[in-house]
Amino acid sequence: MLMQNSTSDMTLIEAMPLLARNGGDWYGTYIHLDDAGQVLDRHKSHLIPRFEADSDRYTQTNIYTWNDGRQVEYEFTGVYRNGKVVYDTERIYGEAWETDDKTIILKFSYKDDPEKYIYEYIHLSDDGQHRTRVWHWFNGQGEVYKHTLIKESRTPD
Fold this sequence. Notes:
Blueprint: H1 12-15, H2 17-21, E1 26-34, E2 39-51, E3 57-65, E4 71-81, E5 84-88, E6 92-98, E7 103-110, E8 117-124, E9 130-138, E10 144-153
């Protein structure tokens, strides 16, 4: 059954083909930097975006692992509305949109710190097997205070 949104009968896969190309298993490394470029944290990641062919939503599981063995897992759902994917979970709220055939922008905030926000730039390689992501973290005055660099591939290193 097709789940329609309020402005179109297009599914998320039809409306946002680049986002849909990001489905599957992604393995990579997150490197968090302060505004001077000093490393604050580094950890491995395994992200699993899943899309349903006849739906306006997708689900993503993020698994983060540190060298000391610590691991955390988060799952969230996005819903296609008015040309964007909207997120409103227990942890985050925000929206994502495609800017061209290789780039997605995501703006989001953590609900436990809502005055701060993050802009994420996602770039998918031509062969669809690699992607890079960059987060810029902004404080309540709109000043950047942190960056996150992420490099991922569809297969583990």
